[in-house]
Design goal:
Blueprint (H helix, E strand, L loop, with lengths): L4 H12 L6 E6 L6 H10 L5 E6 L10 H7 L11 H14 L6 H15 L5 E6 L6 H11 L7 E7 L9 E4 L5 H11 L7 H11 L3 H10 L2 H5 L13 H11 L3 H12 L5 H10 L8 H5 L4 E2 L4 E2 L3 H10 L2 H14 L6 H11 L5 H13 L4 H14 L3 H17 L3 H9 L7 H18 L2 H20 L59 H21 L5 H8 L9 H17 L3 H17 L7 H13 L3 H18 L5 H14 L3 H17 L3 H17 L3 H11 L8 H16 L3 H9 L2 E2 L4 E2 L1 H17 L3 H17 L3 H14 L5 H13 L6 H17 L3 H18 L2 H13 L17 H11 L4 H8 L3 H15 L4 H8 L1
Parallel strand pairs: 1-4, 1-5, 2-3, 3-4
Antiparallel strand pairs: 6-7, 8-9
Helix pairs in contact: 4-5, 5-6, 7-8, 7-9, 8-9, 11-15, 12-15, 13-16, 16-17, 17-18, 17-19, 18-19, 19-20, 20-21, 20-22, 22-23, 22-24, 23-24, 24-25, 24-26, 25-26, 26-27, 26-28, 27-28, 28-29, 28-30, 29-30, 30-31, 30-32, 31-32, 32-33, 32-34, 33-34, 34-35, 34-36, 35-36, 36-37, 36-38, 37-38, 38-39, ...
Length: 969
Amino acid sequence: MRGRSEECAAIRRLLGDLPAGGGALLVQGEPGSGRSALVDYAHRHAAGCTVLAGAGLCEEAGLPYAGLQRLLDPVLDRAGALPEQQRRVLLRALAGAGCPAHRHLALSLAVLGLLAAAARDRPLLCTMDDVDRGDRPTADVLAFVARRLRRSRVAVLLTTAADVPLGGIARHRLRPLNDRDSAALLTDRLAGRAPAPSVAAALAAAAGGNPQALVDLAEVLTPGQCRGEEPVPETPPPDGGLGRAYRARLDRLPADTRRVLLLAALDEDGEPATLVRAARVAGTAIEALAPAELAGLVRVEPRRVTFPQPLVRAVVRAAAPLAERRTAHLLLARVLDPLGHRLRRAGHLAAAAQGPDPVLAAELEQAAAEHEGPATAASAALHRAAELSDDPVRAAARLVAAARYAWSAGLTHRTRLLLGSLPVDVDPAVAGRAGLLRGELELRAGRPRCALTTLLAAADALAATEAAPTATGVAPVATDRAPAAGKAAPVATDGAPPATRVAPAGTDRAPAATGAASVGADGALVDADRVLALGALVRAGEAACFAGDQYRYAEVARRAEPLRRPDDPPATELLSSYVAGTAATLRGDHEQAGPALRRTVVLGGQLTGAALTPAALTCAAAAGLLVAVDGAAHRLAERAVELARERGELSALPRALELRAAAEYWLGRHDAAVDSSREGLRIARDTGQDNWAGVHLGMLAVLAAVRADRDTSLRRIREIGEDPGAHSRPRALAQWALAVLDLVDNRPAAAAARLAALACPGTGRGQVLVLVMATPYLVEAATAVADRPAAAAALAVFDRWASSTASPSRRALSARCHGLLAQRGSAEAEREFRTALRLHPTDAGAFERARTELLLGRELRRSRRPRAAREHLHAAREAFILLGAATWAEQATTELRAAGESVGPPEESAARLLTGQQLRIAQLVAEGATNREIAARMFLSTRTVDHHLRNIFHRLNIRSRTELARALS
């Protein structure tokens, strides 16, 4: 019963209340959502009860009271206990003689009396599954009975798929399973073999959270698909359990309804006006959909016709013969405007095509270039265009373009499938673009070290293509869509110019990439390949950094240098400046790095039109973080996020959100950083980007650790799972988080060892950039165990970077670290700490300022200056309380007491110090609930409640439930 704990608890309560009085429950959910499983659950837990079980049958829907007769047949021998008038009405109705309207009340009271008589010896559970599928009179009688059970020992459980009007009964709507429950259900059905996280996410999305759909998918999953080595199904199988259930519903619909439903299923845009015209041409009307709508198969709204369960669309298509589908496609193409609905019309014509058609393939390609809607439609169109092409080179180019659109839409598995269908021997230009996309897939969702190799090879291939025109004399197909109606198109890679040139309709010539392009000897536009090569090198550098192989960034920079031109447009210059600046940063040459990276930030802010892309903005944001212009970096990352959302470029969002979270961390906006990382994690999982899911999990672990939230931090670290490499970024972030927790728990030696192992700056191996971010914690831990050489070495690297920036916050951290390294009690130590306080921005970074206040107060107290210490310790404690950092507030409180001040428990509202779940438990305790009662109400174990209560007492510095109630008052 994965994901149905709330409903199971409601059923247990229903049965548990039977000795004192009856009740009723209505469970509503779509087919496959688990209604019947809940009925079975009720039967299993009905120990000591008589059980009457029935189910609505569509075959008997036209027979009044047929369902009631099957349900009550086992207890009809108790009818003698009824008043004579009620008994005659009941037996007449169950015998098929019907019931006059004026006797409906008598019949309903007779059923109620019969069930009460059957429950005299022992409680009675009465269930009717799919009550909406059977005859309506039975449903009306059972609803009447269900509303009048308080004085009897009868429980009624009804289930329905449709939203039937059965008022007055407690109703539970079955929600789709979340990702965690979906993954658990898949593991259950795969005999304990947990699918790869990306596979579980893809299957959960394909199933839409429907349990039966997940079961059907698990049954057809191959071992390779389970491991993530092969593309997984995009929809549940039409012949699975859920598909058969929907097909049975389809078979009961009138012919006109099925005909219009097929038109709706084939026209994915769902525009009602189109369907109205198509239905009229087909000799019927859109009103014919009414039976399908009543059956819950389709939803007709003023602006859209939708299928609530995507599988229904697939079942409708699969159930129709090929000839009918082809006729329907041609009919839809006939009623669509050739200009206003160019892509949809071409798609329907292509679906009806029966062999290669170069003209139609070119029309699909051009329509995709002009399309403003979702990238999935353009991807499907280009895939079909490849199938209709008679030129292998053009077909391969269109396949790569289709894969690029699929990747932009976040469809990782579909992208792999399209790239996997490419022939082995393809045109070099197409091979270069395919390699670029394969490398990006490996970087985000595969093996980063392999991604580095693939991307370097792709850059070489694209650079060679730029140097020599293609053998065919035809420009390579651009992998990005052209802007239409002033809307900028997504680009293939970082800063690559979009496809803006559209070939004449009716030709089999692809749109060529333009922008900074120059014309080759044969007239082909080839300079776009150089820009794509630069984009591949940017991704290659990203792969090197992710894998902890920063020393290889020098190779990336060497390859990028020959691709640079003095007259490059801003978008292209941005790429080369970013690579050069990052390479200089990683080798410690900040004098050379600073100008290049600042130029990148400036260029990012100047981009407009087609050059303004999420990929270019993320490069500029990353450059901003490297030179510590956090505000600019945040603005650029925020714009990248907004732009990616506007254009539907889901694949770009996890990286953009990572950079936004990093900027928010440096700005001291920890809550905002948590929100960014949570969103990035969700999108990374939805799009199958496992590596970036790990990055966001690592960042969430660090943010929780910094706030001393041990449970959350450890949970996030566990979610990272198997790591892609010993020195990968997620692993480094996890180690940083564990080191912070070690420091919080007064284990500085363990913290220093973890952080020192993150990287070796001298060799460029490991996560150098993560180590730089974590240096303040490393210095604090190392000085606590008198390991000054390790602290000094790490601080030297941090200082060279911080001094090259104009960031007050970085310099404040540097001064704080120098204060920790200075001799205890010395004037130098106090001077450095006070310098840090002066440099901390007053409008940001409250947490780091409070940490400096705490460390300075500790230094003054240990120097036997308690009066001076108390000022800073009070400031630190107050700031930590306002920030909700309870553990740090406790440390400041401890220091204050050691400085001779009597300090009571925090006066700040408990709501600011507790998590949401802790606050709910605390409120229940304050209301007088026992731990067992709290566990039952919140669907937790009593052990879990005990654990949370101990943490609540610790956070609020209280010792009893009475004090807790007082703290919440």
